[in-house]
Amino acid sequence: MDSDAPQGNEPPTGDLEKFAEHTRRSLILKLSDWQDRKSWDEFYRTYWRPIYSVAIQSGLREHEAWDVVQEVVITIAKQSRKQAYDPKRGSFKAWLWKITSWRISDQFRARAKDTSSASDIPGSSSPLDFVPDMDSPSFEDIWDKEWQDNVMKAALDRVKMKISPRQFQIFDYNVIRGMKPTEVHRKLGVSLAQVYLAKHRVSALLKKEAAYIRSQGDQPGQAHL
After folding, report:
1. Which of 35, 101, 144, 150 is the most exposed place for a label (fewest CB within 10 A)?
2. Which helix (H) or strand (E) holds 188?
3. Mean pLDDT, range 145-157, rounded to an integer
């Protein structure tokens, strides 16, 4: 995996992860007086990537995309407290997309307000004319792709929280980076048995977490809260 290769308008993956962590800390502070902060922390770690990525692809700037991530989680948290979600509205995946699209549109409207009014110039367009149609099938297709791409990354994040840093390092070198067991043995100073054990254990956990995330996407939104 080339983890540091930039994607589109996004910063390199290493920087992206740092920004994500900064946003997570800021968000958790905003939720500090709410119950079950651990669950909201887990929620953020699982779903920030597709929210951020679609926001970027819609044309938002980086700081606007991070604002969307925070606002989406806060909106869902507020709705959860009020028990405002109706499971009849559809799956969690569809619900999360609807809220994400609303918050993206909010950012474009806020940008339009901050832009000098173009209406004073004859023949010019209003900034609001450039707000994308988030209900278009093309954006739903983007969301579906980002959702699927996120599954393994989010599953890996969940696994990292359940195993030791050493065990993940072994798995990282052997499976993610594709190093041979003998190379991992020499580089990390661990036995071949440890390499095979880490591969077996972490792979099983990764498969389990990925299946969980996929199944949750088809559940009513309340199942996550």
Report:
1. 35
2. helix 181-188
3. 92
- The answer to whether residue 103 sits within a structural domain is yes
Q: How far apart are CA 48 and CA 69, in angstroms?
A: 6
- Summarised one tens digit per residue, pLDDT across range 179-204 is 999 999 999 999 999 999 999 999 99
Q: How confident is the model at residue 224 (pLDDT cuts 50, 70, 90)?
A: low
Looking at residue 1, its pLDDT comes to 41
Answer yes or no: is 3 within a domain.
no
Closest listed residue to residue 194, CA positions, set 182, 204, 206, 178: 182
DSSP annotation string for 17-47: HHHHHHHHHHHHHHTTTSS-HHHHHHHHHHH
Domain count along the chain: 1
Q: Which residues pair with 220 in a beta bridge?
A: 91
Take residue 191 and report the two structure tokens written for it.
């036995």
Q: Cβ neighbours of residue 41 under 8 Å, at least 6 residues apart? A: 24, 28
Residue matched to tokens 């540091």: 4
Stated as kind and residue range, the H or E segment containing 94 is helix 92-114
Q: What is the DSSP letter of 174?
A: I
Residue 162 inside a domain? The answer is yes
Residue 198 neighbours by CB distance under 10 Å = 25
Calculate the alpha carbon distances from 91 to 64, 73, 213 in Å.
26, 17, 13
- pLDDT over 80 (residue 93): yes
Q: Does residue 100 contact residue 60 with C-beta atoms inside 8 Å?
A: no
Q: Answer yes or no: are the C-beta atoms of 223 and 216 closer than 8 Å.
A: yes
